[in-house]
Amino acid sequence: MLHECHEELRLAVAEEFVRREKRLPRTHGCAVYEDVAARYVSSALERRHRSEASGPQLREDEVTAWNRIFQDRGVEWLADPAFVDAKLFNRRYSHLRPQKRDWVRRKKGALSEEDERDKAEDRLARELDVVRRAKVGDVWEYIRRPHEKRHEERSLLRRQLSQAAVAEWEKEFGDRWQWLAGREADAYIPSALVTGSRFQWHREPILCQALGCYLCGEEFCCKYDLRRHWRERHIELPKGEKAALSEHRVEEEVRKRLFYDEAFGGPSR
To answer: In the chain, what are the domain boundaries?
Structure first.
């Protein structure tokens, strides 16, 4: 399938055709190899700014390689579809807050004007979410392709925007444009800094409080006190670094210690 074809092969096929024929391939050419080369060229032109069904977004070195093939042959890269649609939406509604819509086809056959409008707004809202995330890094998503019913595949939606692209979006929309904050990676905490190991409770029934520490057996009446105990007694970090940890991160580190103990020591008996 086209999306599974490596970019090096696409470039080699197109370059060989241009070298032989002294022109770019045309769709529906007489020869099969010309039609294949034309599909590769068309796909490349679509993938300058984002990934498409025919393949992932081009890297800068791949764009340079395609430019060598297109040189002096009157080929221009397609504009970013999301940028074009956003300009039209902004011009029509004087804002850039399209809504995600769970639109439903109201009648069989061709879509009505209202359906088309809802579908276009939903598509733009989802695309702008991707663009806003792309300022700080590549944007990936798990997608289930039609031919893979059981497995989801991690697919690239859009590569990190260049500085020029970031400036273009900000210049065009001004105060109406907002970027989404990127997620910062938490500091790594070595397992040796999480003290304790799985606590084994007695099998006899006992009267106890609602919650118990899995690492030492101490009992607590609420989750807040248990998390505070984990932070203070079982994570060996400087005081300032401990305070900076979120409650979710504290609980996550304890879970990692428990999973490690179970993986290497077997389940509790």
So the answer is: 2-70, 81-176, 191-265
